[in-house]
Amino acid sequence: MRDAARASCVSCAFECSWRYYPNLTFCTSKMSLNGQHFVNKVDQIMKKHSGIGMKTFEFEYNGPCFDTSKLNDWLQIAVTSGIEELEISLYLANKAEHYNFPCSLLFSGSGGNSIRRLDLSGCAFHPMAGLGCLTRLDLLSVHITEDELGCLLSSSFALEELHLTECSDIICLKIPCLLHRLSKLNVSDCDALKGIENKAPNLRTVSIDSYIVHHSIGDSLRVKDLEMVRFSEFNLIHHTCAKLPACMPNLETLSIRSTGEMFSTPSAPLEFFHLKQLDIRLDAESGAFSPNSDYFSLVVFLDACPILETFRLEVIQTRMKHVSVLQDSSHLRQIPGLRHGNIKKVEIIGFCSAKSMVELTCHILENATSLECLTLDTISGGIGIGDVDAYRLNRHKFGVCFSEGRHMIVEAHKAVLAIERHVMVKVPSTVKLNVIKPCSRCHVV
Question: Quick check: pTM over 0.70?
């Protein structure tokens, strides 16, 4: 009875403090409740928080349709309490129309004056004005027109980050010049989007679908960090070398993802005079890269980056069709006169025995005079986890460490042999060589 009494006292104290808890997160998967049970529980909690200061309200629902007027009531409670972060994610089954976000709550009176971060998914959003304190806007699969978005942006002067994903109603994204604080833009899978008219003077970091670069992204002279992502884009490296330095001359970091290259890198690309970090990902998803894709041609790309310090190449494929250096006894190609005096760190993930890849690696070793570290990952997946051996030992308690198809396991063993025969002999004493080999337990041929 004494324990029961103590538990009762604790429960009462917890219930009292819970009513004043400022950060509320409701998620169907985390709460292990579905449908109406979940809605009823949220409704009970929100009614007890009415009139109490709230800083964060996150609502994620995945399930059958429910009475969304309840959600409107919860938003009324959250907004009027001075909310700072608002996140709504809806994935309604068997519903033809999207939930229409009640914009009147944000733009009438002082309702939305405190919101700093707004994150909406799976709804319709029709703003009629700006939000003075808004610093970050995330829209995922949201029905909003370019005029409505323009209306919101035109007077959201504090905005620093804009993220748009799968917003299919926007044809031209217009970013006004008054957004002096906007420094980061992320646009992905907006299929109707044809171009970006950017007038924000301090935009620095951009992540966009690569095909947009073929059209227009407006004023981009100040952009320093660029990531181009598109799962079905071909010849992106060729296009980047040929055109990008002219429209983004001040790039410092560049990340490219290409699914195939039909042409080699241009023989005389424009130069990236300020580029310090280059990340290239070649992703064949299921299959192999064409033998016509010449890894050695990337040497010209490196030469176009005179102050490059970090180079990372990742190759993802399920087969290797290039000519193996183990089967071709001819001399390795060289390009005399090229020097890469600032490169300090090089990583090649998915290193294989392709002769052109071995040629690229040997060229770097012979001409990167400041090179400090070279990492060659033959099995993929070893980068970024620290001690690979310790990681594998821990993973073996539950199963395999890295899952890989038989063809690439065989190729990984060939890659190790290629490194031993052609690469190790060229490694200077000042360079640390890290070779991530196939696991002796999980990757046995």
Answer: yes
